[in-house]
User: Which sequence fits this backbone?
């Protein structure tokens, strides 16, 4: 049962990721990314990380990707043109990616004993409650990193607001609405 | 019969899912009838009264009509997305009912099973988060329907719906934090049990002093379900029919059912979190009638009654209050509801830490 869940959703995640790369329309790519995130959430859940799974669904697929789709829809982005790709990508990218993949799989396979293992789906049966433990660790031992991260995100939001704010146009002296509701702009001579 | 424990569990769960699905879809159909009837009485007319006694067979007639209508699809649509959008909307609306406990914890012992819960499909530790997560996925149905229709009105409607739902989701989620703080759990059964001490007096809305959270929840839930006064995504005076302008036949019916199924889910959540779920208002003050069967059935009736009251409130509001303007809607969500919800969390946390 747990193995079947793992195989189905792992295959779905890989298929979604491939589709994400192969699709030419931004909306289709964004939706494949949603599929990847949802399948990852199921995998997290089958490993016992239920809070992580819920957060993945709510934050990533429910908020971040909705925003992406919203922006693509609003800008009405068209289909991408397919190019043959740069030569550097072929000569450096593919061997590089293969090397990173080999290195990672070597490390994981050789160190698999020291990394420890988790019983796939074992947590689904006895329903452990780990939200309490997560919040205890988050607000005691990891309090400083947690707060620093939230300040970092706050700074990022402020930065976005500053960048998006319109500079007052030096040419325009006043802009006001007249009685009929039409905006009147008086220019400096 | 000699089934393995897993197979027994699987078959029983499938039976439960089918029963809950049938009941939910029937109540969706009759909520539509209730809406038309109540709207009729509020406008001093009869409402549907021809099909069957008191018009009770009207949902059946509507269903057959929508099935038999021609399924029109414009030429310039994005076809896969156009087809999948109503499916996303309806399935997300129906899936979240799976974690709602309809009655008290009643375990039936089937062979090989430790205890089989009768009155909910699945009792999971993060039930509340699951409902919030599935609601947030439901936005895709509306967003994609408008975009794939290749129609200006539909696109505007779905843009409005998306931005509105993202904005009000925050206030909705924050308004529930106070409840979670009081119950100390995200499990819906635990939250219901935390309100069961003294009947109605210990419900979160009265004894828990969460009435502010309740008002914030109710307003943002209206916006999440795209109901009046926040039904700008389908404002017929500006956008024809909003995001489902190009949909006909069963695809339109799926959006329609999704709206009412969302209303039912929202009413269930409000009942569970603020009105004690399936517990009776006088708690244990009155003796039980009917022994074990009565103890299992009466809570379900209380639950249905509470949900019905919320559905009636939805309909009542729709035919009473005019629509918001779009900028008012956004300003209200971000500048009024969200600060109130945050203050509610702070006050609840302060009171709880002073008390303990």
Assistant:
């Amino acid at each position: 049962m747990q193995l079947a869940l793992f195989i189905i959703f792992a295959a779905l995640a890989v298929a979604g990721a491939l589709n994400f790369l192969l699709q030419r329309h931004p909306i289709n790519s964004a939706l494949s990314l949603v599929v990847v995130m949802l399948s990852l959430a199921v995998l997290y859940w089958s490993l016992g990380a239920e809070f992580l799974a819920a957060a993945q669904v709510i934050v990533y697929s429910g908020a971040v990707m909705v925003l992406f789709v919203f922006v693509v829809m609003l800008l009405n982005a068209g289909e991408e043109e397919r190019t043959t790709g740069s030569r550097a990508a072929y000569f450096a990218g593919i061997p590089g990616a293969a090397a990173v993949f080999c290195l990672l799989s070597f490390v994981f396979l050789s160190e698999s004993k020291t990394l420890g293992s988790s019983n796939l789906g074992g947590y689904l049966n006895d329903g452990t409650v780990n939200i309490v433990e997560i919040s205890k660790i988050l607000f005691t031992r990891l309090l400083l990193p947690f707060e620093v991260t939230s300040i970092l995100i706050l700074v990022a939001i402020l930065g976005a607001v500053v960048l998006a704010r319109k500079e007052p146009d030096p040419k325009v002296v006043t802009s006001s609405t007249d009685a009929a509701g039409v905006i009147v702009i008086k220019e400096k001579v | 019969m000699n089934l393995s424990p897993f197979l027994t569990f699987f078959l029983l769960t499938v039976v439960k899912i089918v029963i809950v699905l049938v009941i939910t879809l029937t109540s969706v159909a009759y909520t539509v009838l209730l809406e038309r009837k109540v709207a009729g009485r509020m406008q001093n007319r009869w409402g549907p009264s021809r099909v069957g006694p008191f018009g009770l067979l009207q949902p059946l007639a509507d269903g057959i009509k929508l099935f038999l209508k021609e399924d029109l699809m414009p030429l310039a649509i994005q076809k896969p997305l156009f087809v999948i959008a109503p499916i996303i909307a309806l399935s997300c609306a129906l899936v979240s009912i799976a974690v709602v406990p309809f009655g008290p914890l009643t375990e039936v012992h089937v062979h090989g099973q430790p205890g089989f819960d009768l009155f909910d499909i699945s009792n999971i530790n993060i039930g509340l988060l699951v409902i919030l997560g599935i609601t947030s996925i439901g936005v895709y149905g509306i967003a994609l329907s408008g975009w794939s229709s290749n129609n200006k009105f539909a696109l505007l409607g779905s843009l409005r719906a998306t931005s509105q739902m993202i904005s009000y989701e925050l206030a909705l989620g924050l308004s529930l934090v106070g409840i979670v703080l009081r119950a100390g759990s995200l499990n819906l059964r635990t939250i219901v049990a935390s309100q069961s001490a003294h009947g109605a007096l210990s419900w979160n809305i009265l004894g828990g002093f969460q009435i502010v959270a309740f008002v914030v929840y109710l307003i943002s839930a209206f916006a999440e379900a795209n109901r009046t006064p926040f039904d700008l995504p389908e404002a017929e005076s500006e956008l024809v029919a909003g995001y489902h302008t190009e949909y006909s036949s069963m695809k339109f019916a799926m959006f329609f059912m999704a709206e009412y199924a969302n209303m039912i889910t929202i009413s269930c959540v409000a009942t569970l979190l603020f009105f004690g779920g399936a517990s009776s208002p006088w708690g244990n003050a009155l003796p039980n009638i009917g022994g074990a069967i009565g103890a299992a059935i009466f809570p379900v009736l209380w639950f249905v009654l509470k949900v019905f009251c919320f559905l009636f409130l939805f309909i009542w509001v729709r035919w009473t209050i005019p629509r918001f303007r779009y900028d008012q809607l956004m300003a209200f969500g971000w500048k009024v509801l969200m600060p109130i919800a945050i203050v509610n969390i702070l006050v609840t946390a302060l009171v709880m830490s002073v008390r303990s």
In short: The first helix of chain A runs from residue 2 to 22. The first strand of chain A starts at residue 172 and ends at 177. Chain A touches chain B at residues 1, 27, 31, 34, 38, 50-51, 54-55, 57-58, 61-63, 66-67, 69-70, 73-74, 127, 129, 131-132 (CB under 8 Å).
